[in-house]
Amino acid sequence: MAKKPKKQPQSGSTPATVALTAAGAAFTVHAYEHDPAAASYGEEAAEALGVSPDRVFKTLVADVDGRLTVAVVPVAGSLDLKALATAVGGKRAAMADPAAAERTTGYVLGGISPLGQRKRLPTVLDASARAHGTVCVSAGRRGLEVELSPADLASLTSAVFAPIGRSA
Asked: How confident is the model over 29-44, as a mean pLDDT?
């Protein structure tokens, strides 16, 4: 028997925006035309939205000692895997298998949001987020970002703040 195709979310409705609405959080959705040839989804978002790359954060899924963990870092830099492992009390971290990241979060690569994931994972938000009134993260698909306060992002994902990003 063939699998039923999944319903595509309406214009700005994704599990991330549904979770934000249900929580009563203040947020703004920003849509832009995604270019499939873009080298970096995060940098593409920053440029399309006219926002500093220091305020646009990418969501990465890593494997820390056999446990999937979410890292949210500025698109202007990279993830320090050793710092991520330390932040969650682990010893070793490596980027997660892409298929496992998609299956566990319910999102596709380039559109993984730290919000509204299929399975809640331990989450670490780079400490630099605290320097901004609002930050942008994926709203759950390529070409859609959500802007919210770092405090709300941390609260809604049960994230801890830690210096896990490296400057470019």
From this structure: 85
